[in-house]
Amino acid sequence: MSEVMQQGPAAVGVFDSGLGGLSVLHHIRAELPAHALLYFADSAYAPYGPKSEAEIIARSLTIVDFLLAQGAQALVVACNTATVAAIKAIRQAHPHLPVVGVEPGLKPAAAASHSKKVGVLATAATLAGEKFKLLQQQVAQFYQVEFFLQAGHGLVELVEQGELDSPRLRQLLHAWLAPMAAQGVDTLVLGCTHYPFLRPALGQVMDAAGWQMQMVDTGAAIARQLQRVLQQHGLDAQTALPAATLRGYTSGAKGHLQEALQTLLGWQAQVEAARI
After folding, report:
1. Count of structural domains within the chain
2. What is the pTM for the complete model shown?
3. Do 52 and 8 sit in the same domain of this protein?
4. Cβ(18)–Cβ(197) under 8 Å?
5. What residues are annotated to the active site?
């Protein structure tokens, strides 16, 4: 057995364009408490949605190299846009690194929908990606469902600003959901890791309009997949261990990530600014 196969439990690096990946980090901590976690928020470059694929790949590879230098032995790309654009390049650059990406929960949403009409709220870059289009086609055919796609323009920026409950936010959400509701959508895929933090506001908008849509995100499923991948590589915790450390890094303001960890997750963690 190789040296890598004998290490466990591995330190896991997690990154996102900003704060959205914290919704995934929450589930990873719950599923894998013994693993040290390193979170990178690329807030100085958020959002990724409007950026070109080449830009996202370059940023992603830079962040991965940084997390590896900090001791990460496995990686979660906790950003739908970065997964679509860059996960192939990451795996090519680091062929022996366990890497888990995220994708919108089209399959569980399709399985749960009674009307067979599923809405997908995601970034424009995610919806335009070939990986997403292929998944949409496969799921639509298998489950005989119809998907209604909507780019959530402006939502990532509001989450990054900590604006999770405001008239401006609710107005945006209403605008993006109304066409889906008119088509009879009964299940909504939150196709960006920022969007689970908008669940309360989404619920308020739906209740006010009389819309009935169940929401689907994949944070818990990603954490379970990470656990399986770590087990396959011999990097999981074989016995119960004390909760491991969490370190945060950001290309933006250090206090911004510290406040988000406290406000969104109720966590306090060491955070460093990383000028990469």
Report:
1. 2
2. 0.91
3. yes
4. no
5. 79, 192
